[in-house]
Amino acid sequence: MIRSLFQIQTFILILCGSYVFAQKVTHVLEKDIPYYDLETRASDAYIKERCKLDVYFPKDTTNVSTVVWFHGGGLEFGEKHIPEGLLEKGVAVVTVNYRMHPKVKHPVYIEDTATAVAWTFKNIERYNGNPEKIFITGHSAGGYLASMVGLDKQYLEKHGVDANDIAGLIPFSGHTITHFTIRKEMGIDGTQPIIDTYAPLFHVRKDASPMLLITGNRKLELLGRYEENAYFYRMMKVVEHPDIELMELDGYGHNMVYPAIPLLLNFVNEKSKSIDTD
């Protein structure tokens, strides 16, 4: 379903108000946890430096949902962080650093993403999380990476994880065509759109995890970013994916993280309730 702009604005106000009255829960932050094994870290100084994650989780609550957050920055810059709207919401948050261009090239970014997601599946119970309720998200390049690791199953299969076990994918303003930095690495001009194996659009499939696509307003966003997501939405409908939604945030451009967080949390809450009652 594509929601109208007025509906989304009203929805955000309601959600923001409801979370204000949420019960206070003590959270703990553990920083700079390596997600590659010791042997791999010892073999590559950049992996040892860069491939770390933070886990923020409710201290005395079990069976919690987990949001894995990948930062943006065009695959060339950025640092792991927890968006303010995800603090003290009763969910665990895993925020990830990954290697970046020009020190590495594709598909290393996606491989790091998959390794961090696999680490989460294998370890989140130690942080009071339920591995059946892991949601993958991120902004811009991070949204692209979330889509790639959730749709192209080969990356998680290498770690013994089925991408379909992801509870939901929520890319914020992510490329659905091949990312512009990857096109640059292949010597393809930025004006040439490509849909190849490094494009989420290449991997549309009916059995993928539930998806919530969120972008800024089409006139304020990066040129074409809403339209990419709208076409991705269309193709997922063509293959009869049963659970995908597209939201366009009125009044916001590419920097649309803050108003999108309540929509993310509502999605996580709804899907988690369904899992708990199955």
From TrEMBL:
Pfam families in UniProt: BD-FAE
A GO molecular-function descriptor: hydrolase activity
InterPro entries, per database record: AB_hydrolase_fold, BD-FAE-like_dom, GDXG_lipolytic_enzyme
Superkingdom of the source species: Bacteria
Transmembrane feature ranges: none
Keywords: Hydrolase
Stretches assigned to the BD-FAE-like domain: 53-216
Protein name: Alpha/beta hydrolase
Organism of derivation: Ulvibacterium marinum
Lineage of the species this protein comes from: Bacteria, Pseudomonadati, Bacteroidota, Flavobacteriia, Flavobacteriales
